[in-house]
Specification:
Blueprint: H1 10-32, E1 40-42, E2 48-50, E3 53-55, E4 60-62, H2 64-80, H3 89-116, H4 120-128, H5 132-157
Antiparallel strand pairs: 1-4, 2-3
Helix pairs in contact: 1-2, 2-5, 3-5
Amino acid sequence: MKPKLLLAHKYKKLGYIITLPALVLMVLVLYFDFNFPFLTYVAKGNGINMEGLLFFKMPTHNFTGDVASVSLISGLLLVAFSQEKYEDERIAKMRLESLMWSVLMNSLLIIVSIILLYGGYFLSIMMYNICSPLIIFIIRFNMVMYLDRKKMQKEKAL
């Protein structure tokens, strides 16, 4: 059975090429307040006023964090949803189990965060939660694939 929603295998490499610099940029933005000056927007005017609510009113905004976030999510999506070199039913089953496992683990992390964290700490966790399901999935899927390959090699050796 050919997977319908997976990208070609070549996009996995492109995903890693996008993800790694985006991850570094995201760390710089979040922890060192880094930004590119050429991505700064200075508003002209007062925004859009509709029924007393003011929309798009931001005097200045730097889009470095936005570029880093979109790049990171895009790269992770390419890595997570690209086919393996040889995709079969066994790998599709491992992919599905890993995806379900990552959603479950991410949900448990959110529940624990709701119970234990408040204010800024909770908002930080929710910010990381944007990418955490994909990261958990990629780690879990690659770990399961690695263990499966080792198991197959042991069986061949016997």
